[in-house]
Every structure is written in structure tokens, then in C-alpha cells.
Amino acid sequence: MSMPMTLSLCYLALLWLREPVTLSDLLRFVLDGHIPYLNAFQCFPEEMKLYGVDLKIFRVESWPVYEDVHKKMYELAAFLDLPCFPAITNSCFLHPNILCIKYLMEANLPDELHNWTCRVVKKINVGETDFLTLDPVNKSTRKVKYDVLAAALIIVVLKLLFLLDDQYEWLHASFARKRNQKNKEECPWFDFKKWYTIIKKSLDVEQKKLDEERARCLWKCEKPLFYSAKEKYIVLKRRQTVVNLQRQFGSLSGSMQVSEKQKPSSFQLNWAEENTDGICFHGHILEGILQEKDNSLTTTNTKYWLCTVKLCNEKICGHLTHYKESDFPQSYQFVLNLFSFLLRVPASLIHEEVCLIEHKLFKTKLRRR
Global pTM? Predict the structure, then answer.
């Protein structure tokens, strides 16, 4: 047993109960200190004593990694020989149609984009119950990362509508800005450049806060672990030395104001209509991006660029695709990094899911090549 394995077990329970908590939420609660993980043994009652090998379980020297916990979760489900989990239907929180609503709200994107994410979900069949439901017995089923899948769906839709090639989205933004200036009383068009500016400013502030919190994190606890009575004196003496040094450095640098810990929430960014700190884009329309054709709305833009033409062999390469920032447009990088921050996962993980969705969406055209 290990601490990451414990998190995998917790997520298995959440998945079985179909609780409205994703794996990225669970790991974020750990990083923010809402769930005991680092020095978790300090929460144990006094009568619980740790000895021998048990001490190594709670001596954590790194934060949990999304892919590691996700992989261990499937291994644990197979080891316990668990039956098929309760079905994830359209009304379940983990269904991509519902998760996309959550991430569209948090990314401050227009509500109309949800119609397009639903169309993509239906087109590539990633909303089917058999695809989404965890079945440890059936090893051929894909190991779905629900939150990463939803984020990747939104990015693909943004590429379909705005192309994200560092040209088309800025050209449309200039038209949208001029139109909004002339028609201030009507519903505003979505201005990608304005959205980019506001989101980047908020993202930089939140990232700075996160970096400062990580820097202040103390890996050594007030209640140290020692394997034997002989080590007790040495460990306590070292601990006292560390405390004295921290006190001296604190007096030299001045007392740091530690922000009060906020209550755990599924949302990190708030873009409510009454929020005066930023502009809410939820009600903005996609006029100028969409056109009516054969009694249905379609994109004005007819072009699309693929992140990769051919996927790697995961068994040989260890992954499906490579991600190098310099190979992609800055707009695409920004959107990828935005959802990387919201999910607290590497941008390469979301990029890989984007490539998978694109190959399902354009499989007919790719086969012709």
C-alpha cells in the first residue's frame, strides 16, 4: 500500500457512487491541503503508533501525479476483481455533456459552445454508456479520463470554430470588436482577443498564488517520524534546529501574510454576472462564426488543422503523440495551458486527448490519405 494507491482507492469509491468529483478535483483538494496527504499521520489520534514498515507508507516526498493515480485505480479495480461499475448515463456528472458545461463556465466561454461539444460527443460516440462506464473485467475497454476528455472536447470545438492558428481568431476578433462598439445595446459578439486578455490576466494571478503556496509548503512536519528509539533524539534535535532557522529567517525577511485557506470548491475561477473583477462572456453569441446552411447552423470557417496526422504506437513509444510547444500556434498553446491549470495536469496529457478526438472525428478523411 502507498499514499497514491490510497487516493486510487478513494477515487474508485467516488466513481462507484458516481459522486460529482473528478480525479483532477480530488488531486487538487490534496494539493490545496483539504485532504490529508503530506504528513497525513499528524491527523492520527495519539493512541495510534506507527512502527517499522508502516512508517514508509506515510513518508511522502512528492505530490500525487494524475496519470499514476489513474493507472493504479484500474490496477486496483482489477486486483480486487470488482464487477462492472454503475452506468454513467446522460444525467451523470461525469458524462462529457455535463462536464463540458462545468469547464465552459470556468473558462468563461460562451454558452453556445455547449451545443457544439454535444454534437462532437454524438459524432464520435464518446457519450455512450458502454464507453464511459468502468468495467474492470473487460480489459479491452478504454481507460477514460473524464475531465481530460471534456477539456479536450472544448479545445476541438474552439479549433473548429476559431481555427486557433494565430490568424483567423484575431481577424474575427477585430470584426467582433467593431460590431460591439456600434451596437452596444444588442447582445455582444464573442471577442476572442478580449477573452484572451482577461483570462490571461486572471490566470497569471492565480498561477502566481499557486507558485507561492507551493514555495511555502513545508515537507517536514511538526510531529516527526522515527523508526526506532535511538533515532528519536537525533530527529527531534534536527527538527528543533529547523524551527530555529525558520524563526530567524522569518524575523529577517519580515512576517509573511499567509492567505486564509478557502473552502474546497469544484470551481477555481468565478465569472458570475455580478462579479466586478472581470467580464463574463457566458451570454456572448457566436455571430459571425456560424452561418445557416440547409436549415442548420454550420461554421463559417471551412478549414481545420490536425495536431498530428498519425498517432504513435502506445505500446512502443509509451504515448500516442509528442507535444512540443514551439510546434503549435500560440493561441492553441494558451487554451491548452488554461485547461492544464484548471485540471492541474500536464498540457501534453490534454493534447494527446485532443489528437484522439480529432482522429475519431476525421477518420474518414484520414483513411483516404
Answer: 0.86
Neighbour tally for 126: CB within 10 Å: 22
Q: CB count, 10 Å around CB of 66?
A: 19
DSSP for 160-191, written as a single string: HHHTTSSSHHHHHHHHHHHHHHH-SSSPPBP-
CA dihedral 138, 142, 145, 148 (to 10 degrees): -170
Residue 69 to residue 6: CA distance in whole angstroms: 9
Count of other CB atoms within 10 angstroms of residue 353: 23
Please, which residues bridge with residue 293 across strands? 296
SS3 265: coil
Cβ contacts of 42 within 8 Å, gap of 6 or more: 36, 221, 222, 223
Tell whether the torsion through CA atoms of 219, 50, 74 and 150 is positive or negative. Answer: negative
Confidence tier at 52 by pLDDT (50, 70, 90): low
Average confidence (pLDDT) over 184-194: 92
**Confidence check: pLDDT of 276 > 50:** no
CA–CA separation, 145 and 353 (whole Å): 9
The pair phi, psi for residue 306, each rounded to 5°, is -85, 140
Task: Supply the pLDDT for residue 216.
Answer: 72
The amino acid occupying position 167 is Q
The pLDDT-based confidence of 138 (bands split at 50, 70, 90) is confident
- What is the percent of the chain where pLDDT is above 90? 55
Q: Please, what is the average pLDDT of the chain?
A: 85
Q: Return the C-alpha cell found at 302.
A: 471551412
Instruction: Categorize the per-residue pLDDT at 255 as very low, low, confident or very high, splitting at 50, 70 and 90.
Output: very low
Q: How far is CA 28 from CA 9, 134, 173, 220, 242, in A?
A: 16, 22, 34, 21, 28
For 258, the 3-state DSSP assignment is coil
C-alpha torsion angle, residues 105, 110, 116, 117 (rounded to 10)? -20
